[in-house]
Specification:
Blueprint lengths: L5 E3 L14 E3 L5 E8 L10 H7 L20 E2 L5 H4 L1 H8 L14 E8 L1 H15 L12 E5 L18 E6 L29 E6 L8 E2 L5 E2 L9 H14 L6 E3 H4 L3
Parallel strand pairs: 3-4, 3-5, 5-6, 6-7, 7-8
Antiparallel strand pairs: 1-8, 2-11, 9-10
Helix pairs in contact: 1-5
Length: about 260
C-alpha cells in the first residue's frame, strides 16, 4: 500500500493541541449508517458515474437511499441545496430506529459513514456539522465514524471545509493541480482542484493528494493504472475506490470521543 501526499491536517491555534485533549469511552457500535452525497448536477450526471459506482457496491453497509424523485438512488442530490434540509432528515431517520423523534440510549449506537464527491464532498462536511448540533441527538450518538471525501469542491467554500469535532476519522482523496484534459475544464469556474480539509490539531485527518505524486502509479477499481498527473476531477472516485473500501472495511473507527466535545454544552 502506497501512502502519498499525506498531510496531518491541523488548524493553527486549535484548542485541541497536544496536552489538552482527553478521551471518554463510548459504547461499541452495533450497526452502520452510510450516506453518500453526489456531485453536481444530480445522480444521472455523467461526471458522477465513478462515485455512483462506488456507492452502489455491496461492500457499503447500511446505505441510506434517496427516493425523493420516485426512483431510489444510493446517493443523495444536494447540489445548490442545503444539506440540512435535503439530506439530514434521512440521516436522522436512519439513526432514530425506534421512531420516537430522538436519538438516544434507546437507539443502537451506529457507525455513521459520510461519503461525498465534488459539491457533495463539501456538503458532507456540513452534514456532519448539522449532526453535531442537533439537540434531539444525544451527544454520544452524534459521532461520525468516517468522513470520506473525494475531490470536494464548491466555489469560494474554503471555510466550509472545517471538519467538526464529532468526526472520528477524516480522509480526503483529491487532485490539487488539474491537468489540461480534466473533465471540469469546460465547467463553470473550472477546471476544479479538490479542496483540503481544515481539521483540529491532533485529529485523525489525512489529505491524500494525487498531484503530490505525479508519476504514480495508482490502480483504480477496475485495475487500470494511473499517473498522479493524469487523475482528474471525475476520475478521483474511480482511483480512490480501493482506498475508500479499505477505510470502510478496516473495522470500527476509534470508539472514543474527546471529553471536551462530549461533555461541552
Amino acid at each position: 500500500l502506497m501512502w502519498w501526499g499525506v498531510a496531518a491536517c491541523a488548524e493553527p491555534g486549535s484548542a485541541h493541541e497536544a496536552g489538552r485533549v482527553s478521551e471518554a469511552p463510548r459504547p461499541a457500535s452495533t450497526c452502520d449508517v452510510t450516506i453518500c452525497l453526489t456531485g453536481a448536477i444530480d445522480q444521472t450526471s455523467g461526471s458522477n458515474s465513478g462515485f455512483e459506482a462506488l456507492c452502489g457496491r455491496d461492500e457499503l453497509v447500511g446505505v441510506v437511499e434517496d427516493c425523493d424523485s420516485g426512483t431510489c438512488y444510493r446517493t443523495h442530490d444536494s447540489f445548490m441545496r442545503s444539506p440540512e434540509g435535503a439530506v439530514y432528515p434521512k440521516l436522522f431517520a436512519a439513526l432514530d430506529r425506534d421512531g420516537d423523534g430522538d436519538v438516544d440510549a434507546d437507539d443502537p449506537f451506529c457507525d455513521v459513514n459520510i461519503l461525498g464527491f465534488s459539491w457533495g464532498g463539501v456538503n458532507a462536511v456540513e452534514l456532519a456539522r448539522v449532526l453535531s448540533r442537533d439537540g434531539r441527538v444525544s451527544r454520544a450518538q452524534r459521532r461520525v465514524a468516517r468522513l470520506l471525501l473525494m475531490d470536494p469542491y464548491q466555489p469560494m467554500a474554503a471555510a466550509k471545509m472545517r471538519v467538526p469535532e464529532n468526526v472520528a476519522r477524516t480522509r480526503v482523496w483529491r487532485h490539487s493541480k488539474p491537468n489540461p484534459r480534466d473533465c471540469s475544464r469546460v465547467a463553470p469556474l473550472g477546471p476544479y482542484a479538490g479542496m483540503a480539509p481544515l481539521c483540529a490539531a491532533g485529529s485523525d485527518c489525512e489529505d491524500l493528494d494525487y498531484s503530490a505524486t505525479p508519476s504514480g502509479p495508482f490502480v483504480d477499481t477496475y485495475g487500470r493504472t494511473w499517473r498522479g498527473d493524469e487523475v482528474g476531477h471525475c476520475s478521483v472516485p474511480l482511483v480512490a475506490t480501493p482506498g475508500v473500501l479499505r477505510e470502510l472495511e478496516s473495522g470500527a473507527a476509534p470508539a472514543r470521543a474527546r471529553t471536551e466535545w462530549l461533555n461541552s454544552g
